[in-house]
Amino acid sequence: MAALQQRLERFLHSPGPIGDLLAQLEARTGVQRLYLASGSVTFLGLYLMFGYGASLLCNVIGFVYPAYVSIKAIESNIKEDDTMWLTYWVVYGVFSIAEFFSDLFLYWFPFYYAGKCLFLVWCMAPVPWNGSQLIYHSVIRPFFLKHHQAVDNMMGDIGTRALDAASSVTREGVKASLNLAEYVEKVK
To answer: Could you tell me if 115 and 121 are in contact, meaning their C-beta atoms sit under 8 angstroms apart?
Structure first.
C-alpha cells in the first residue's frame, strides 16, 4: 500500500496539467495535493453516480483531455504518442457506436456513468496495459484484419456509385440550364 501511495505522490508532483493545477491549488489553499486529488476524485465519483448531467460530465472527461494530448502528440516528433492516441480514438469511436445502439438497455443500470467514466479513464491511462491498447489488439485489430478487404471493396463500390450519381446530376443540371436559357431566349 505504501508503494502505491508513493507512486500516487510522484504522479501528483510530476509536471504536467494535473500536477501544475494541483500545485496552484496547494499554494492557494495550503491543503496537500493528495487530499485535493482524493477529494476531487471522491466528489467526481459521487457526482457521476447521483448528480444531474452525469452524461455530459462523463463525455467531457472522455473527450477533453484526450483531445488536448492528441493535439500535443500531433505537434511532437514522437511516433509512439500518435499511435497511442489514435488507438484511443478508434476504441472511443467503436465504444460510442456500440453505446448508441445499446443505450436503451445501458442507461437502466445503476451507476452506469460512473462505470463508463472509469472505462474511459482506463482507456486513456498512460500505462502499456491501458484499455484502448488491450481492446484494440485483442478485439478490433483481429476483426479489422479479417474483414478489411471486404470493407475496402464495398467502399470502392460506394465511391464509384457516388461519382456516377454526381456526374449524372451534373449532366442533368447542365441540360436543365441550357433548356432554361433556350426558353428565356424564345420568350424575348
So the answer is: no
Q: Which amino acid is at 83?
A: T
Measured between alpha carbons, how far is residue 27 from residues 38, 48, 87, 95, 181 in Å?
A: 17, 28, 37, 39, 75
Contact of 66 with 85, CB cutoff 8 Å: yes
120 and 132 in contact (C-beta within 8 Å)?
Answer: no
Amino acid in the structure at residue 42: T
Chain center to CA of 54: 17
CA dihedral 123, 126, 128, 130 (to 10 degrees): -20
Model confidence, pTM: 0.65
Task: For residue 120, give every residue at least 6 positions away whose Cβ sits within 8 Å of its Cβ, in sequence order, or none.
Answer: 58, 61, 62, 92
Long-range contact pairs involving 10-14 (C-beta distance under 8 Å, separation at least 24): 12/37
Alpha helices in the chain (DSSP H): 2-13, 17-29, 33-50, 54-75, 79-106, 112-124, 131-135, 141-187
First to last CA, the chain: 92
Q: Predicted confidence band at 181 (pLDDT cuts at 50, 70, 90)? A: confident
pLDDT confidence tier of residue 45, bands split at 50, 70 and 90: confident
Residue 130 near residue 124, CB atoms below 8 Å: yes
